[in-house]
Amino acid sequence: MRSFVIGGAGFIGSHLVDLLVERGPVTVFDNLSVGREEFIAGPLSSGRATLTVGDALDLDALTRAMGGHDVVFHLAANPEARWGLERTRLDLEQGTIATYNALEAARLVGARRFVFSSSGTVYGNTSDVCAEGDLGHLPISLYGASKLAGEGLVAAFVECFGLQGRIVRFGNVVGKRGTHGAILDFCKKLQQHPDHLDVLGDGRQHKPYLHVTDCAAGLLYVLDTTGPSLDVFNLAPPDTTTVAQIAELCVAASPNPAARIVFSGGAQGWRGDVPVSRMNAGKLRALGFSLRHTSDRAVGLAVREVAAEVFGAR
Fold it and tell me: What's the rounded Cα separation, in Å, for the pair 241 and 146?
């Protein structure tokens, strides 16, 4: 199997590449704006993966690089949803247009299988436990809007051009090599001012956190599923973890475990943030896939991994 991973040098992509090289040669396509070549140093040095530095907004370059591959994993996106508040075109470009380019390149080169990384943000601002068919609320962030638009494009390309499409909606992914998210943000804040940690919201926001190794394993499992030409899967643990728990763990893992935690107040961390999210991943579980980590365990492990990267071994 020849795999093409857009965004393969990034946080999730690099972990997926670690698994994909066991199945055959892998081409990583990444502009390295957030991803890092060091994240895929092992597969590159072994010769089982190659890196093409390019931008998914360049359709011609993407098409040239994608030729000869069997399956496309599209993981490139704006890595931090809050950035859309400052640059409102960011998710349109890095999300919707980049996804169109990835699909169009796959159509042009004849790559028949396409796996798209989506997000639980497509379910909007609801505390309901959402399964794959529960799209009763629209997204409230530009990031979520771009993911929903991307899902629509995948569905249309599957219907119109005969691709096999797999859409995977992630919970909040955490773990080593993280390039964004609350854990990294908290650890960096504590590195800058070790005596206190400022946290947006009241700390009671809670979401399902998915360890990145479970995320990569789930993507491969979804690739191997049989069924309709288009299928959608939630990939998340059933439990959730609060922001307050994450903050406490980050402080405990920092050089100053006595640091004060200061909450800004309010139910929402930032405009566009979904304060409470719960996902029903029973569909994938019924097919035989099981996560190794609960949300709390994923967060605990990720805090240790990220703290070691930020603060150094203790």
Answer: 25
